[in-house]
Amino acid sequence: MIVRRRWTAAATTAILFSAVLSHPGPGSAAPADPATPITLSATETALVRVQLRDQAQLDRLVAAGTDLANRPRTRDGRILADLVLTGAQLAELTSQGATAVQVVQRAEDGSRHYADSVRAAEARTAAGLRAPAAGQRTTTAAVVDTLQVQQAYWWTTGGQTFLQTQVATTATDDPDVEITVSWRTSDGATGTFPLNRFEDSGEYQYHYALPQPVPNRPVQLTATSSLGGVSRVVTPTLWPNATPPPLPAGYQKDFIDAYLTPTDIQARIKRLARQYRDLVDVIDLPNKTQGYRRNAAAYLGDPAVAAVVVESVRFGDQGMNGVQVRTVDPGRRNRPLTIGYRDRVLTVSLATDTAGKTVSTTDEVAAAINARQPDRFRATVEDGSAGLPMPVAGPARLDDGLQGTEVPARPWTVQALRLGVHRDGSRVGVLAYSQEHAREWATPLVTLEFAERMLANARTDPATRELLEQVDIFVIPMVNPDGANYSFNDFNFQRKNLVNHCTGPARDPKNRTSWGVDINRNYTVGSYFDGYVGGSANCLSGTYSGTAELSEAESSNVIALAQAHPNITFAMNVHSYGGYFMWPPGAYRADGRITLPRPSIDESTLFLDSARRIVGAIAQERGTVTWPSQTGPVADVLYSAAGNSADQLYYELGIFAWDFEVGNDRWNAATSEWEAVGFQPPFDEAHGESQEYAGGLVEMVRVARDYAAAQPAP
Ligand SMILES: [Zn+2]
Known about the structure:
It is a single chain. With 714 residues, the protein is of the alpha+beta class. Helix 8 (442-458) packs across helix 9. Bound molecules: zinc ion. Zinc ion binds next to loops.
């Protein structure tokens, strides 16, 4: 969905939030208990879990173009959304009935520099409706719906047992149906909990709830509906009920000591290649990125009064940082508007009238710069300044605004590691790739830990050696280095790459943290350009799909590697956060929610069975269990993501392509809440994610080995 909006910070805020707040919907959920107030200064940006007032508030956020990073979350009828927002935005939401429940992460210093830039960036949202009322509704005499328990799973993590269910009613069109689950455990305890209705794209899917703590192993479960429907009695089954082989004595792991910048990752790739020469190739991917660079820009005039944005055509590091621009009064009557460029100073001499008064407008100044210095400069009238008298201003220095001083500005060569004894295409291939999204700092830790485990143990563990005999492993630890450099140095919530395709007023430097292409919306299958949901044509959107399919070097590199190695049969796209395990279809069309084709029964079985194995391997590390409600096709368990990489790998190249969202919510026993970990958690948490999900990738290699062994000989 595309929402036209103006791009000044104030205007965007006003439109976004007035749209949200002026249409309170029916059936507001009760607010949460008052807790410690969460405060942000007006210009501070943070990732905050917010309990929204009601479904209508969520719908307005979505309609206003808020990027959705995650699946609907509900708890006891409350709608929880994770939003990147400023203190001012949070205050406005709060004043209208929303409640901040957790500051997941605050912006780093580098990003405060740009904190006035408005980004209602990725949001994890919730689409549940109302919780059942406290009292039972009057039940009608006739039973008018039938309930089917679609899922009933239990597991134990950290000593706590959880139960999760999914139930569908045949009364699909009645938004007021209330479903309650009753459970009994092996030691005779009983209890109930309500489910929440889950709709997606306006269509009823099922009722479900977040995993519920129960005192012991649940042995019986029934669901009842407010319309009188009663499900069959079901025995919950153990999830994922798959355990990988135990790690052998002396198994080497834990190769991650800190978050890794792109430069760190480059060094590690080099070190692994040197240390394990016989098992590693380094592949330079064919498309160099733009590099950590930007056009240099300055405001000529006062943006609050009247200004023109002047920008260099070349990047700032190509000799344009520090170039000056100014307007001058010629001090004589009847002068024309002239442009001069000398000694790195662009001088605009304003036109004067017969009295010697300057008469040039902002539009005339911008047009003159564009007409007479098209090879060096681009000028745009600042939003709100159109037609105003151009003041005498400057000199102002053009600057690219980039803060990183240790980062090479040149175009970046993205690299893949190829691991295996037989790196000749004769073995089944597996691809793991991470950090398509710049801010997901934990994700390259996962793939690098995985790579080094395979290499280090190849010399000491016969089972690992055997895997490297049978499987050809490709790893791209960092797909998006330029965005990652920006995330580390300038704006830690950066998601996209650094290529700015914006034109006109959207190029105003105040939008600089919103530029870039969402790499995982830039692929060719089920794309925005094909009419699928979950990508955007708006260059400032968090899910901007680019100018065309594969317009970006980063996405083209992933596909080039897969195309060059047709033995690749399995792939894992590693993202954060939230704790998901997903596969195609990853997108649907808006009208009628028509997804990309569903995998066949056999392939769906392969996806699910393999997922259970891999989820079991992830749990082996520290008990983290990826929920059954977050294991499945992207379009079902998360949202529609038009033009994502897994869909192209699967539908076009025939690769079984999965996605991880590492960083599962952590259970807080004191508050009985699941808590979000965010994109850049304290390092201890990121380290834990790297260890557990690396174990998941090792299991994917075993899945590939078993798959290849089961194929008929050629
Ligand atoms: Zn991501």
